[in-house]
Predict the structure.
Amino acid sequence: MKKIAISLTFILLSAVAASAQTTPPLTLARTILLPGVKGRFDHLAIDAAGNQLFLAAPGNHSVEVIDLKTDKVRQSIIGLGKPHGLAWAASTGSLYISDGVLGELRVYKGTPLALAGTIKLSEDADDMAYDGAHHLLFVGHGGSDAANPAKIAMVDVDSFTLAADLPVATHPEGLDIDAQTERVFANIADSHEVTVVDEVGKRITAHWKLANAADNVPLAFDGAHNLLYLACRTPGTVIALDAATGKEVSSMPAAGKADDLFYDPALGRVYVISGAGEVDAFQVDEARKLHSLGVLRTADAAKTALFVAAQNLFYVAVPGAGVTPAEIRVYSTAKTGMAQ
């Protein structure tokens, strides 16, 4: 009987594994067309209460404001150089845009959104992370040369003032926040390291060097497992680091040219979207190990996305091609929405 039970258990686990490999981790729920929006896309942000999605369109020198009730563009914020990072702060009812060409952080308020202030940064102002509990916005910028040193700006959104500007080795890429320990993690890709910032002390407390991969661009923090996930481009890899020590816990192959990475706390999953137009999905187990759930093909040049945990939705920005208009593909991550 014991042998039979073991055999049945093995068969069941094999069936579950096979199902995980064939069942897509994301299923298409709807598509939002963006006619007239040209060029490549960068980061996205959402105002959940206001039902509006924001899309940085550096190829169009604009940020598109999309009404999620009608799935239509409500406003196009123009006059931008190269919009990169976006953040919505509900406490101030404001949209923050980092502009890489103008080398500044901009804040927009009102209906429609209008420019309400700027803070001068270095060129290549890029990704951002917002701590809503402390009303602090962190912006990576600079790093192109000695005249534009790489830094992480800390901005008080209530007063819209620069609270600190912390020097780092090279240009900061992805950022994320551990609100419980009040730390900010930043991928410093060209230096193959993660920099850790203490919000309260306004200082850098650690530099975690990567041993087995480089070009670490996007990252995401997982408080449930106390892990930090990095997607590296050389080679294409997703790595889980212990968020207390910076030591590698697990790693798995992933598509190269990763641009965005998200953690799904409800399902314990990691999603990596890359320039190959693919989303790699991974499951995190109780031992904090990563397991592949397969790859979802989206569209050519679709390399940026936004995961909204409260909605169980994954928004993928797809640039237009020829006569085919640009679009946002909205995928469901909920188990009930998975294909059978």
User: Anything to note?
Assistant: The chain has one helix and 28 strands. The chain has a mean pLDDT of 92. Residues 237 and 254 are 5 Å apart (CA to CA).
